[in-house]
Amino acid sequence: MIETLNVRASRFLRRMFNRPRIDMPLALGLFVLALTGLVTLYSAGDGSLGLVGGQAGRFALGGALLMLVSRIPPSVLRGWTPWLYLGSVALLVVVAILGEGRGSIRWLDLGVFRFQPSELLKLTTPMMVAWYLHPRQLPPTWTDIVAVGLLIAIPAGLIAEQPDLGTAVLVTAAGAFALFLSGMAWWRIGALLALVGGMIPVGWHFLHQYQRDRVLTLLNPESDPLGNGWHIIQSQIAVGSGGIFGKGWLHSTQSRLDFLPEHTTDFIFAVFSEEFGLIGVAALLALYAFIVGRCLWIAMEARDTFSRLLAGAIGMSFFVYVFVNGGMVAGMLPVVGVPLPLISYGGTSAVSLLTGFGVLMSIHANRKMHI
Amino acid sequence: MKNRRSTRRSIKDPRGESILFRRRALAGFALIVLSLCLLLSRFVFLQVMHHDEFVTRAQANRVKPRAIPPARGLIYDRHGVLLADNVPAFRLEVVPEQVKDMPALLARLGQVVPLDPDDLDAFRKQLKQSRRFDSVPVKMRLTEDEIARFAVNRWRFPGVDVVPYLIRRYPQGSMFAHVVGYVGRIDVGDLERLDPKRYQGTSHVGRTGVERSYENVLHGTPGYELLEVNADGRTQRVLETHAPTPGKNLYLSIDVRLQKAAETAFAGRPGAAVAIDPRNGQVLAMVSVPSFDPNLFVNGISQADYSALTGDPDTPLYNRALRGVYPPGSTIKPLIGLAGLETGFRTPQDTVVSTGVFYIPGQSRGYRDDQRGGVGRVDLVGAITQSVNTYFYKLAMDMGIDRLSQFMGKFGFGQPTGIDVIGESSGVLPSREWKAANFNQPWYPGETVIAGIGQGFWAVTPLQLAHAIATFAGHGVPYAPRLVMATQSAGQAAPTALTNPPSGPSLIRKPSDWDVVNQGMEQVIYGSRGTGRQLGIGFPYLMAGKSGTAERYSRKSDAYETNRDTAYLATRHRAWFVAYAPADNPQIAVAVLIESGAWGAQAAGPVVRAILDAWLASHGGVLPDAKRLPDATPASRPAGTPPVEAAPEDEGAIEDLPVSDSARGAP
Fold first, then answer.
1. Which chain B positions have a beta carbon within 8 Å of A137's beta carbon?
2. Which of A82, B226, B587, B636 lies 20 to 30 Å (CA to CA) from residue B171?
3. What is each CA distance from B310 to B316, B321, B665, in whole angstroms?
4. CA of A266, closest CA in chain B: separation in Å?
């Protein structure tokens, strides 16, 4: 009994490593991105190898999870989806009841490590939307749209309540992209957007004071010279002084002299822009565009509705990270704690992103076969 | 066409969906590329079009913001005498990120400015907690000499600077150490609970007393300044200043003169005194003797000073008024008597015969009266006047422990009084529930008997007793005690009074019950057999009071019999005296405890009188709303009779009490 189990396990592992079911272009893109991240981190962290080593370790863990998840066929994943979704929402409720965290409540202390359940929802929400739309006639009707809206609103509302607006936006975007890709009629999208636009003044009322301050600070950075306004000004100076060709690797002055805050995490893009200039920025954005494009390609090749919607939604929400972080660094969007994917220092997001790409790999492996 | 489509819609159409998805994916990708172009155009705007401007700004980026800590609110007594002040001083600070080799720097710095191990310990602790670009203080309160020596050697120490700041000073020294408390350096634990934004640049935080409980009021809002720094990070000039908002000043209800009189009257004997205004709960004096100099703690107390304080057998750091718990003894007899009247178990006319020993029916064990042979037949007024144990033994038996503790609980025993500083003890209100919870034993009738005279499980703090007497003196209207009377914002001419509404309706149902008990307490002072009969002499207004002498040891112990002289008795007794005045319109209630006094009235009584005299003097010796006694010597006392030494009274008389009082509560 144990022997057969052993045999099966070793066969599974052997297959996993001998025939990794991964899409080479996507894997290559991610690899180059991670490498860029480590190189930038070395400079941003004042040459701290400990920082780079730690991040490389997280990439390794994320890569292993990617391989593992890529072995799970999409049909199996689809079967698990409702349970994964309900489980992660239940964890959010648990966090709301007894979670801990300074100022905002996001973490669940599991003794050994602390864990942020909202991170799970970035994956389980689009999965649930795809699962819901999978058996239905597409494009979706109003009934479907309302149901999907509820599936998104429950976790997004709980996360916004923590309060963690950045993650709430990402979760909403992931779910909304699945809906968009399902072929929701353009006029319905327009109507919905108009409705959301009309709700903005109401939503403003529900924001926390510090969240409103962040938006107001964007309009007038000088109003908060010790906090976010300072971040915005310093970040723009760093970016702008980089010019077209940049100051060269390890030669950023603004982060080195500590004018730029959070320069290994949320504002690492500013360090990158200062050192590698507009050319570097264009190349990095092109790399992100390539990765997102490849994700959409995999989605188009996918075998069924669930896989298609899920792959597309993951790819497109990856882009949201880039846009929100880039916009923040360039002073276009308010300061929200969204990292630059696979470049910013920090474990949770790197691991969860790579896990999401594992799902994409699995979808790719189970694509439609052209005859 | 339309018809065909609707029939097709009823079943799933994978091919159509696939095409639909492909279109959507392409649209999505177009959207993404468009957004990225938008983002890229912003970078072009910053990096190409405004490149020169930002290069200039980056090179000129010599401006750093720095928080300006707010000045801490000052603390005054009720008449504006300064109790806590801010004085300017200088400290040495290090910016960690500008230092390559910290141990070497500290070694070199130590040769210029002496750094003792306490300084270095505090510095290392804080270094771990702070960000690399925030400066960390190394040494507080530099002398003129040290500042001068550092100034000459400053070029050798990049990242180190002399910074001016305000330091807390307590001009009254030890007199207010237990009330005002003190501030201390912010440590690791504080950093976790304090809002970092509000405490940027602040080095001290309230540790104990009012400084701690009113931290939020005393601490203001920081401002900031924009500094121009050179390549070393040294400040060249200040470009802009946005002033901080100072914290609010506090006015305590305590009067320095009362506090001083109380402290002096103790003459160093360990004990505590609390005076409360029964009309509003304001604390007029709160003393715990011995005390300590709070100024020692402001910059971190040295190991030697701290050992001296903690090693002192009289424990000066211990706040006896707030935390010390002692058996209240006979001081609670008036309230027990009130309970008897209010619950209907006694009328003022009911009498009890005191024979010297009281027996629970059916038990052979006796409970002694303080006078051998007893005092004969007494009513409630007489029982309070002469502190007759038997009356209260019997009353407690008749009421039963449940009614007794329920009534006494309303006067605040067994729970915190809710005073506006933290750390007060709850004491013990004897009850079945308390005993079951703490000893897991049933209640015995004998314990009810001794609870009637404030012995046994009873434990109260001086504050609790003062609060209870003040509540009684105020005709039963309870107020939570308050130390802080008013606050004052910067630039505000007159302080704003803080309101303190009563915490409930009057606890006394029949005003006539109050009159009877009050009469008993007046007779304690003025009655020919009153236990405190010399205390009222010369006081121009009516006083009411009660003495208490609580035993620390059981009479069964060997220690009791070995030496019976007064000096030795003192080590076994807690001397209490409680009083209020004027009895016809009470405006001050006082409780005084002396940890080792022989007899309550003799030891603690004069301290009460000293406080009342100082209080009266602070009113100019005249109270317009109370009846002035016709003569300095009250009429009820036979003229010409010399004051008699207070008779020995209420030696708790507890036969066979297995647990000594010293085993509980007392420090």
1. 9-13
2. B587
3. 8, 18, 19
4. 17
